[in-house]
Amino acid sequence: MAWDTPDRDLVNQAIGGDRFAFAELVRRHERRVYNLAYRMLGREEDARDATQDAFVIALRKLPSFRGDAAFSTWMHRVTVNACYDILRKRQREPVQELPKEVEVGPGGPDHAEVTALLIDVRRALLEVPFEFRAPLVLHDVQDLPYEEIAEVLGVPVGTVKSRIHRGRIALAAALGERFGPSRASEERTNR
Predict the structure, then answer these.
(1) What is the pLDDT of residue 31?
(2) Which of 22, 76, 84, 170 is most exposed by smallest CB count within 10 Å?
(3) 67 in the Ramachandran plot: left (φ > 0), alpha (ψ -120 to 50) or beta?
């Protein structure tokens, strides 16, 4: 199997029963699916479960993939839905684990401070309501354009923009508890 085979061809081969084609799709998209799930759920265990669930669902529903959008867009949608399922099944708990990868260059900020900041941001992100967190992560972390996020979530582009804006305000308010009042939390208080 060629490394440059388009996803659409791999999908067709996988539908035809080629296990190696689906394995290649998993290899290509596994990291992005996991990263999305991790940022949506905040726990490694939940992210691994959501990633596994997303690929199992994708394998089962592959014949329903029409190809109207890119396979990656479809996988984002499947992943977001898998995250919704996990959130419905499990009670949210505070994130207690330390990030595994913190890069600090020479003369950069203190490693302990960077680690504390990353933990604070992850905890604050978990306080953002899920309907705002999903588009916020897809846009600000996964770097997807508004149109693709709209496709993934099945909502209009204007709704995506609104939810990202509200998600940023909620994130700023959650972070403001640690760093002092933010403009966003002052805005909310003055309403």
Answers:
(1) 94
(2) 84
(3) left
Helix axes 157-179, 111-127, angle to 10 degrees: 130
- Tally the residues of the chain: 191
Query: Exposed/middle/buried for 180, CB within 10 Å: 0-12, 13-18, 19+?
Result: exposed
| 3 state SS of 106 | coil
Helices H / strands E in the chain, number of each: 9, 0
Distance CA 187, CA 83 (A): 31
pLDDT tens digits, one per residue of 74-111: 999 999 999 988 887 765 444 444 444 444 444 555 55
With contact defined as beta carbons under 8 Å apart, do 153 and 135 qualify?
A: yes
Task: Encode 12-40: b = buried (16+ Cβ within 10 Å), e = exposed.
Answer: ebbeeeeeebbebbbebbeeebbbbbbbb
Domains of the chain in sequence order? 1-93 (1.10.1740.10), 107-191 (1.10.10.10)
Question: If residue 146 lies in a helix (H) or strand (E), which one and from where to where?
Answer: helix 146-153
What letter would DSSP give residue 145?
A: -
Computed on alpha carbons and rounded to an integer, the radius of gyration of the chain in Å comes to 19
Hey, what's the torsion of the CAs at 149, 155, 160, 164, to 10 degrees?
A: -90
